[in-house]
Specification:
Layout (H helix, E strand, L loop, with lengths): L4 H9 L7 E4 L18 E4 L3 E4 L22 E7 L2 H9 L5 E4 L3 E3 L4 E2 L14 H7 L2 E5 L11 E2 L14 E3 L3 E6 L4 E7 L5 H6 L6 E2 L2
Parallel strand pairs: 1-2, 1-5, 5-8, 6-9, 8-10, 12-13
Antiparallel strand pairs: 2-3, 3-4, 6-7, 10-11, 11-12
């Protein structure tokens, strides 16, 4: 059966902790904002210079000047603050963000991440991904387990240009949750999504992994 995109985001939200400053990447990670537990204080940071992002606006209430790093319209909170992109990246590079939840194209068994370009295709830019994986204390990747062709995306080695080497701590796909020991070629399957079998995960995964269920 596997998890839907929303269920993957809800599982990623379980990695949040009260008082965390968090950066959410483009794609599935943006959905995590919908699953912050009630009563938990989490402050969302955006690379383009905003701290304290509110929820997505209702139709007709969008403000084209109020966007996140993925150019999606968002809302502000009474506690929101704005600053330059330089200050935003100083915050990231200075280790002041506790958690970043990013999308991915490929993850290797040693924690390498490729998520910013495919050679030969148009690239808008790397965004803040390289700074995030280098400066944030914990990195969680949420992505589809396989490409549309069926090729696995959890690999022994990434074939795409790297965003960062040995930077991923946790991987969440529609099939389950994998703990990655940065730089040590150690992957543990922590959870299986409902209706997913271990044989299915093995068949769709190139990387070596232990089962810790």
């Amino acid at each position: 059966m596997a998890w839907t995109r929303d269920e993957m985001a809800a599982r990623a939200a379980k990695e949040l902790r009260d008082g965390f400053y968090v950066n959410l990447g483009i794609g599935i990670p943006t959905l995590v904002a919908n699953y912050i537990p009630d009563g938990m204080q989490v402050t969302l940071q955006s690379e383009n210079g905003m701290l304290g992002m509110g929820p997505f606006p209702y139709e007709g209430e969008e403000d084209a000047d109020l966007i996140n790093a993925g150019k999606q319209t968002i809302t502000e909170l009474p506690s929101s603050s704005y600053f330059s992109s330089a200050d935003s990246f100083a915050m990231i590079r200075g280790g002041h963000i506790a958690l970043s939840i990013l999308g991915g194209m490929q993850v290797a068994q040693n924690g390498d991440l490729a998520n910013w370009m495919v050679p030969g295709k148009m690239v808008k830019g790397m965004g803040g991904a390289m700074d995030l994986v280098a400066g944030v204390k914990r990195v969680v990747v949420v992505m589809d387990h396989c490409e549309k062709s069926g090729a696995p995306k959890l690999l022994k080695e990434c074939s795409l240009p790297l965003t960062g080497a040995g930077v991923v701590d946790l991987l969440i796909t529609e099939l389950g949750v994998f703990e990655i020991n940065r730089g040590k070629t150690s992957v543990k399957l922590l959870e299986l999504a409902p209706g997913v079998t271990l044989d299915e995960v093995k068949a769709k995964t190139e990387a070596a992994f232990e089962v810790a269920i």
